[in-house]
Amino acid sequence: MDSPKNRLFDYVLYLLLFFGITYILFLNPSKSGHLLTSQTSQCSPSKTYKMATYRDELEEALSASSTENKTLIISIVNKAYVEGDKPMLDLFLDGFWLGEDTKSLINHLLIVAMDQTSYERCKFLRLRCYKLETDGVDYVSEKLYMSDDFIKMMWRRTLFLRDVLKHGYNFIFTDTDVLWLRNPFHHLSLNQSMDLQISTDKFNGNQWSKANPINTGFYMINSNNKTISLFDSWYAKKGNSTGLKEQDVLLRLMHQGLFRKLGLKVRFLDTVYFSGFCQDSRDVRAVTTVHANCCRSISAKLADLTAVIHDWKRYRGSSDNQTLTFRWSNHTACGHSWRH
């Protein structure tokens, strides 16, 4: 049997032990924190992961540029379009400045840059800009019409625009060599049932006729399952369309019945409003855009688009009587561009 002295000793020992543990856990938080940290580090994996929100830079650029109904304007540039005494991008922006009811549209314009130089120029101009990853392919220099590099660049453009549709955004795509002299939304259907409205090189008089020669340098498209399927089918032809630009492939698909198969509602735009060098607008009082199509080089486009700017200024400063006799300047530089 234990003596009273032994029991007293055991009691004091337990009491000291109790107070010691209490002090470590509750009265000295720095040490207790160290103990808990040590325990956790022993039980957790050797590699830790931080929770992070996925950041979609394209979505951010599209959202910042679009209207409330997720519609925006997209143009694509490279270094060749931003350098020189009067670069193509600057001339393109002049159209918005000089046009009728076009200045505010800049707020919904997204410039897609295919290289660092054009991206930096875009940022310098305080535009909405997106840098397109090109997987190491050189899209910096001028790509002459129908050259191999030109065709590659057009397919890369198609792939990017498909991604935009898949993000759920409607857009007007415009080449940078298209001058916006009036707000095109006044002559485009905003009905969501209209899947695609596309410009033509020469309008045949029927806005529903698939005999119109399409031009992919200017079009408006709504994002839906049908238009995404169109771009899927279109881009899928890239590998077996040697020597054809993406516009030729789309034209072939249309003639093969793809538009009808997908149930697409497509409108072909009248050159009275959406004109180009292939077919001038007959009415300067109605013309909305002027595209430097049927032209081979950037220098020729710049020369003849500059003449269009001068024609536009002349029209804006003329009387009604002079308007009746208005004529566009000849597209001389573009005509000569095919000889080289």
Topology of this protein?
Layout: H1 4-27, H2 29-43, H3 57-65, E1 71-77, H4 88-98, E2 109-113, H5 116-124, E3 128-131, H6 148-166, E4 170-174, E5 178-180, E6 196-200, E7 214-221, H7 225-236, H8 246-255, H9 258-262, E8 266-268, E9 274-276, E10 289-291, H10 298-316, H11 320-324, H12 332-337
Parallel strand pairs: 1-2, 1-4, 2-3, 6-8, 9-10
Antiparallel strand pairs: 4-7, 5-10, 6-7
Describe it for me?
With 340 residues, this protein is α/β, with parallel strands linked by helices. The protein has a domain at 58-270: Spore Coat Polysaccharide Biosynthesis Protein SpsA, Chain A. The chain is built from twelve helices and ten strands. Strands 3-2-1-4-7-6-8 form a seven-stranded mixed sheet. Strand 1, helix 4 and strand 2 (109-113) form a beta-alpha-beta unit. Helix 6 packs antiparallel against helix 7. The longest helix has 24 residues, at 4-27. The protein is globular, with a radius of gyration of 32 Å. Mean pLDDT is 85; it is low at 29-54 and 141-146. It holds the Pfam family Nucleotid_trans. This is Nucleotide-diphospho-sugar transferase domain-containing protein.
Key attributes of the depicted protein:
single chain; alpha/beta; Spore Coat Polysaccharide Biosynthesis Protein SpsA, Chain A; 7-stranded mixed β-sheet; 3-stranded mixed β-sheet; Nucl-diP-sugar_transferase
Short description:
By secondary structure, the protein is of the alpha/beta class.
